[in-house]
Amino acid sequence: MLSVREVTTAYKGLVAISQVSIEVEKGEIVCVAGANGAGKSTLLKSIAGAERIRSGEVSFDGDRIDGTAQHLITARGIAYVPENRRLFPRLSVHDNLRLGSYLFRGKPDREQPLELVFSLFPRLKERLEQRAETLSGGEQQMLAIGRALMTRPRLLMLDEPSQGIMPKLVSEIFQSVKKIRDAGMTVLIVEQRMAECLEIADRAYILQTGRVLMQGKSAELMDNPDVRKAYLGL
Amino acid sequence: MTTATIIQSLASGLLMGLLYGLVAVGLALIFGLMDVTNFAHGEFLMLAMYMTFFLFAFFAIDPLLAAPLVGAAMFVFGAVAYLLVVRFAMRAKANIGMVQIFTTFGLAILMRGLAQYFFTPDYRSINVSWLGGKTISLGGVFLPVPQLVGALVSLAAFGALYFFIKKTDFGRALEATREDAGAVALVGIDKNKVFALGWGLGGALVGLAGAVMAMFFYIYPDVGASFALIAYVTVALGGFGSVFGAFAGGIIVGLVEASTALILPPSLKSVGIYAVYLLVVFIRPRGLFGSI
């Protein structure tokens, strides 16, 4: 479904990811793990069209999408939840969600994803009229994911959804990722917390200083002694 | 000075104030949306007044009928000004604020120069219109009908703008872009389209104001300058970027101007406005309804 081939992206002359290749198949949860500065966020930005790639190819359902404007990539069915969430802070929770379905005119296209969002995150339903900026970190993350789901994506990309969230909510958010997959979507998730991420993912890539260091099925990586030592602290 | 003269002055000040609000709101809208001050705003007004004049002179279309046409034409003009000029100024890598100032300022000078060349510096006026010269008496207060209708047009335009921003998808996109223009692509919105729409709306609103004002002000290439100055004061008073602030600011400016004229000689009628402006800048720099 998504294929990233030998992509190199640089910020101001500094190479952030180099020759990175990853594949995501329909219906999978794929985790990209790695330490801070490994290039995880850059990888997602390069796919979402938020950052121009220097070389390589990104294709989605067989069509090249690198070089396409970011809003058109969203319209093609890739929803991207960035690290800092980028909610519209002074708009209500409801307006943030409604903006997610901006591209759709028909009522069913707007209401069906809303039902999914409310079933995943019932708290959002209680806070509909509140301004987004008044939500807790965890609720903001739920809203950011909710807004992304409103765009009816086929591929959902999450950048460090666990960041700045209290531990209890972290597992709630990871569980919701599984439910999102069960609802028929494909998920690409980038995380520093590798253990939790491997637990829900089918496959994973480990990124180090801008390159793919290892890849494989989650279970295999979890059993790999090097990974256990270096990343899982076991 | 009798009570009657005071009421009379304040009533005409209120009517003028509503028009000032309509002149200024486009400026506030664009500033709120993208932090760009349109220094060609007065020239947008000038162009709208000329359009109204020529529709009258060549096709005998009354300014009242011309208003929606001029509003629509100025919508297109505003959007095109963004797409062809301002959009490129925003790509500046360094000193972006200065680049934007000089770009819109340059646009102003260009428009003024073209107006002088093509329309000549002559003063024009629309001497016979449906409403021109008529007055109406409301409880002993005499109001000029063109100004009264202008005030009603302003109220209607503000009402429509409020509805548009609060109740429509485009309005919500406008609000979202104003919050975080870099984030709207996440929901599939093209921020350039929203910016163009904002400039279009700004143009349409000042276009309506121009059409109304062509009924009772002289029309000449520099006409925008003095009104633009008042518009900047209005927007600064009300709070930069606030649509409601422009409405309130306009009314305050109109009332202050009328009150000043009661006390000081008419040639000094603007003194009061700038005094109030300075006061607001000292005491509440973000303006009365500004949120920054």
UniProtKB/TrEMBL annotation, chain A:
GO terms for biological process: L-amino acid transport. PROSITE patterns: ABC_TRANSPORTER_1, ABC_TRANSPORTER_2. The keyword Transport applies. The keyword Transcription regulation does not apply. It comes from the Bacteria. Signal peptide: none annotated. Keywords: Amino-acid transport, ATP-binding, Nucleotide-binding, Transport. Residues 2-234 form the ABC transporter domain. InterPro entries: AAA+_ATPase, ABC_transporter-like_ATP-bd, ABC_transporter-like_CS, BCAA_Transport_ATP-bd_LivF, P-loop_NTPase. CDD domains: ABC_TM1139_LivF_branched. GO terms for molecular function: ATP binding; ATP hydrolysis activity; branched-chain amino acid transmembrane transporter activity. Involved in beta-(1-->2)glucan export. Transmembrane domains (TMD) form a pore in the inner membrane and the ATP-binding domain (NBD) is responsible for energy generation. Belongs to the ABC transporter superfamily. This is ABC transporter ATP-binding protein. It comes from Rhodopseudomonas palustris.
UniProtKB/TrEMBL annotation, chain B:
One of its GO terms (biological process) is amino acid transport. It holds the Pfam family BPD_transp_2. The keyword Transferase does not apply. The keyword Transmembrane applies. It is a multi-pass membrane protein. It is found in: Cell membrane. One of its GO terms (molecular function) is transmembrane transporter activity. Signal peptide: none annotated. It comes from the Bacteria. Keywords: Amino-acid transport, Cell membrane, Membrane, Transmembrane, Transmembrane helix, Transport. GO terms for cellular component: plasma membrane. InterPro entries: ABC_transp_permease, BCAA_transport_permease. The chain crosses the membrane at residues 6-32, 44-61, 67-86, 98-119, 139-165, 194-220, 226-256, 268-285. Belongs to the binding-protein-dependent transport system permease family. LivHM subfamily. PANTHER family: AMINO ACID ABC TRANSPORTER PERMEASE PROTEIN, BRANCHED-CHAIN AMINO ACID TRANSPORT SYSTEM PERMEASE PROTEIN LIVH. This is Branched-chain amino acid ABC transporter permease. It comes from Rhodopseudomonas palustris. The lineage of its organism: Bacteria, Pseudomonadati, Pseudomonadota, Alphaproteobacteria, Hyphomicrobiales.
